[in-house]
Amino acid sequence: MRALRDRRLSTELPRRALLGGLVSVSALLIVGLPAWPEGVEQESPFDGSLVRRLARALAEKPYEVPSTPLPDSLTNLTYDQYRSIRFDPQRALWSDSNQNFRIEFFHRGFFYKDRIEVFVVDKGHSSLVRYSPDDFTFGLIPRPNLGDMGFAGFRIHYPLNRPDYNDEICTFLGASYFRAVAKGQGYGISARGLAIKTANSAGEEFPLFKSFWIETPPPNADSIVVHALLDSPSATGAFRFTIRPGEETIFDTEAAIYPRVDIAESGIAPLTSMFYFDVNDRTGVDDYRAAVHDSEGLSIRNGRNEQLWRPLTNPKDLQVSVFSDVDPRGFGLLQRKRAFIDYQDLEAHYERRPSLWIEPIGNWGEGSVNLIEIPSNKEINDNIVSFWRPKEALRAHQEYLLNYRQHWCWSPSPKSGLAEAVGTRTGRGSAPGSRIFVVDFVGDRLKGLPKDRGPHAEVKASKGTVQRIVTQPNPESDGWRTSFELLPGDEKLVELQARLLDAEPLSETWLYRWQS
């Protein structure tokens, strides 16, 4: 009944149907690839600047849509047929060595029509990994015999949870999407190389990682390096990921972007996730579970060192929120609820989904963290996007270098010390037309406060009237609860914020967009 729901399986359909703007998935995945990048032989020398040189040269040429068609027998696969195609683990890269890492590949077909090329780098020399149908078992479909078809993507295995088993820790599959997990987690949120024109009514542009170079790690290494060449009508790019799996899986990311045209609507370090419902947003939901989401809120630590928390919603209409900043310290889509009882789903286990925190390295200048929330009536749809957008457009024929660290984790660290908003609830208020909001804050700064003189709650609304502000200890969470009522009047949209103070801030700032 929930075949599409279990994100632990990397061969599962990624939930991107809504992210085109608002374009269809079929439109997203028609772009093909040449056999290998122009200027790169199937076997050639490799150095750390090669991918950047390729991206720079590619950007100086008009974009071409290569054609690498698939036969109907692979294009028209059902979901179950595609999932039945399995890579043979015995044929994984480095399966016969003492490497900690193994690489397995995905077959082309179903939604994954694009061809990628993968090179293995060893001692300064790169070699193309050649496709063979012998590397796969085909389950519900006949074995194809179509020559060199290339691959759709790959996944990385590593002994993450126990020393005698190589867990799948990372997947690169589809456009420029990739996912990863930390110890004990299952797949959820995704990242991308670059976002362009997200939520644009004319349709989003989806750059593609067309070629990869995977460096052979030393024996018993605990990190692996992956290079990726990105291409799209508007830009090319070169990415270098140093991946370190563990209690917190880290991607040290070095990106070089080369626009072909001026790009006003860029998205740097884009994140893609799913929010279906929670206690703050259950309108129209008839479901036995308490909540369904891969991420429950957007967290921002801005350049002024303010910590912001915005609970996610599943809106009736497309919503775009912009948080202006200068030199952000970090942002991410987080999953804070970590108990089974928070979700009550024995199959999906949303309590195990990763949080993903972006830590900029260096100064990113003026811009904004953007949040896009897209209406969705199914949990299989990724309907949440967040990224950094520079204030100035990316100019054609320029080079943009950006470094950042991705933390695939249970919770970002180090902590700011401020109490966090761990629960948001809303319902009908006491006065006609009013809404009550209840926010629970938990953190060390709230512990030991006298119960008869608790923190002061500062509550603000962009419109309407706030009344009945109450702050009280919550012994169940060992924190403090703030509640208030909003009288919106005739307003259709009100921006709310709340935080706890005692001469100085004790909590992060809670933000919320109420709509009628």
List its salient traits.
Beta-galactosidase, Chain A, domain 5, disordered N terminus, 4 helices, 10-stranded antiparallel β-sheet, mainly beta, 2 domains, Immunoglobulin-like, single chain, 16-stranded mixed β-sheet, 516 residues
Describe this structure in words.
- The protein is mostly beta strands and 516 residues long.
- It folds into two domains: 25-409, Distorted Sandwich (Beta-galactosidase, Chain A, domain 5), CATH 2.70.98; 420-515, Immunoglobulin-like (Sandwich), CATH 2.60.40.10.
- The chain is built from four helices and 34 strands.
- The strands form five sheets. The chain has a 16-stranded mixed sheet that branches.
- 45% of the residues are buried.
Short synopsis of the structure:
The chain has 516 residues and is mainly beta. The protein has four helices and 34 strands.
CATH topology of the largest domain: Beta-galactosidase, Chain A, domain 5
Total individual domains? 2
Class based on secondary structure composition and strand pairing: mainly beta
Q: Judging from the principal axes of the Cα atoms, what is the shape?
A: globular
Total number of helices: 4
The largest sheet, given as strand count, sense and whether it forms a barrel, is: 16 strands, mixed
pLDDT under 50 segments (min length 5)? 1-36
Instruction: Estimate percent helicity.
Output: under 10%
Radius of gyration: 24 Å
Question: What fraction of residues sit in β-strands?
Answer: 35-45%
CATH architecture of the largest domain: Distorted Sandwich
Tell me the span between the first and last alpha carbons: 34 Å
What is the β-strand count?
34
Mean pLDDT: 91
CATH class of the largest domain: Mainly Beta
